[in-house]
Amino acid sequence: MAKDPARPRPTMAEVARAAKVSVMTVSYTYARPDRVSEPTRARVREAAARLGYPGPHPGARSLRRGRTGSLGVVLGEHLTYAFEDPQATRFLAGVAEVCADHGLGLTIVPITGEPSDADRVAEAAVDGFVVWTTSDDDPVLPAVAATGLPVAVHGGPHHADLPFVAIDNRAAARAVAAAAFAGARRPMVLSFPLDRARTPGVRAGLDPAEATFRVTRERLRGVRDAWEAGGGRWPQVRVAVCARNSASEADALATTFLTGPDAPDAVMAMSDELALGLLRAAARAGLAVTGDLAVTGWDGTDAAAAAGLTTVAQDLRAQGALCAQLALGEEPAAGTDPTEWRLVLRDSTRR
After folding, report:
1. pTM above 0.70?
2. Domain total for the chain?
3. How far is 9 from 12, CA to CA, in rounded Å?
4. Residue ranges making up the domain that contains 143
């Protein structure tokens, strides 16, 4: 079938729909045909011919032949997140530092949640991938693995056959929750999203296993450990879920639960950004920290220090650098551990 020059280039997702197979099956048909049965390969190629799909992008094919001079970062967020979120920018700075040392470019591959995500990954002209934390069921991770390129995953999911970089989120959450909830009667967690639906709201007795984001799940488990170790029952802990790691979103959500008889007297936030948004809402409500409300954050940012916020300090820049080294097939430098963390106690928690 001759390709109409006015028509956009057909995508792998369109071929998958026409052949009634998954995008991964189409990808394997071209990249790893031995993993697809002959009848299925024939169906895929017939659909591709009918649509005028010429096969994976030449840039993607070049990845299997040699170096392209760029490292890809798969970012499961809107592209602007890379520039607006302090934690993401620190992580990306570490990746960029390694790229600069090796004379490589850095390609950000944003994920939209659409079927075209797998095509975007398959067609990225890069030498390897760093995957920013995403959900267990995100089809992007299999798409990345299907390229056959080196991959390093930050935060989760944790697949045994892929290099993985993260702090012990459960242990760190246990420590910071113990500080946050000391003497508390109405504890709350200000949480990252639970899954790719990113539905905000307040839940009680939330089973941490419901969270398909590994970071969220492990931190909830650590909070539960701490609360139950102090004699509490997990259903007493409410979880306020934010759709994004945004101070303004945390501010807006906190406004809905910081007043009334059920208002929390202690909140463990899963990031400094969320905690700072909460502190703004608390100030408007006339609440005193720590007289009315204890608050903790996570990440150890400069803004947290300025606000006197108890937090978990971690080195996201070093973690980004480690991910980049692993994606380039390098051995990490000896003598340092970027996944170390520490609890930093300040005036936002009760002693």
Report:
1. yes
2. 3
3. 10
4. 68-165
